[in-house]
Each structure stands twice: as C-alpha cells, then as structure tokens.
Design brief:
There is one protein chain. The chain has six helices and six strands, in the order E-H-E-H-H-E-E-H-E-H-E-H. It is of the alpha/beta class and 159 residues long. Strands 3-2-1-4-5-6 form a six-stranded parallel sheet, with helices on both faces.
Length: 159
Amino acid sequence: MSAVLVVGAGYVGLTTSACLAHLGHDVTCVDIDEERISKLSQGQIPIHESGLPDLVETGISAQRLQFEVGSTNAAPESEFVFLCLPTPQRADGRVDVDAVLSVVNDVRELLAPGSIIVNKSTVPVGTNSTIASATQRDDLHVVSNPEFLREGSAVNDFL
C-alpha cells in the first residue's frame, strides 16, 4: 500500500487519516498543534465521531497510523499528500488559502518525483493551478478530493 501524508489533524484530516490507515495505507497525520498531536498519539480523540476512536486505536496498534508535529519529516516518503487545512473567509469575502500554500512551500522540494498532492481543503475553483505553480516543479501532480464528510457519519461516509 501507499505511504500517505495527511496535513491537518482536524475533523477532516483525522477522519481521512484513520480511514486510509484502516484501508491498509501507511499514514502519517501531521499538525502544528503539539498538544493535539500528543493526545492523538495516545489515542485521545478530540471529536465525537462514531467508529473513529476504534479506527485510530487499530491504526496506531498496527503501526499504519502515526501522528507528528510538522510535515517535513514524513514528506520524502509520501506518495500522496492530503491537504486538510483550514481555509477561513477573509474580511472581503475571499477564501484565505495561505495555510495551503504555506504547506506546499514547506514540502515542495522534499517530495519524490511523481508524488500526488491531494487538495481536500475547501477552496475556490482554480486553486489547484495555484498549488501546481507554487510547487515550482513539473514532476508533481495536484488533484482535488472535495470534503464530503457529514458530522456523525464521517467514517461511514468515507468508507
């Protein structure tokens, strides 16, 4: 199975990480929140989602799911990089994609040729082109996998 990096350990990133690990992938879920990563590494889930605690516990036990602070350590081994980052609305109504572009900037030189950046963050049409340009590489691929998870049934929705 594939080595996967999931950037963002919030609702979408955590669910994505646990479900991909459940499907057999080796997943590293990263976040900048050290306390969140510490708790997740111990199997403490900060959200209520049916089935999620069991998937996280099983993924950690099977060594298919790990949690780290920051994305640079896991990036070189990752075939897929899922961007599950917040994209708040700015005062002028536009979407703030700074967090997405910051992560792309951090990992672009570390990714192996042929790696696939999967944008799961809620962003406007055209953002994948912006991400592709920001990589400054023509050997990386950028695709979109829109967030579709409903609270309370996210694990079921994903699987």
